[in-house]
Amino acid sequence: MQSFGYQDPTSIAKATAAGTGSQARYLAGGQSLLAAMKLGLSAPAQIVDLGHVPELRGIKVEADGTAVTIGAMTRHAEVASSLEVGARIPALAALAGMIGDRQVRNRGTLGGSIANNDPASDYPAALLALAATVNTDKRQIAADAFFKGLFETALAPGELVMSVTFPVPKKAAYMKFRNPASRFAIVGVFVADFGGSVRVGVTGAGPSAFRQSDMEKALAGKFAPESVASVKQKKEGLNTDLHASAEYRAHLVTVMAKRAVEAALK
Question: What is this structure's pTM?
Answer without folding.
Answer: 0.96
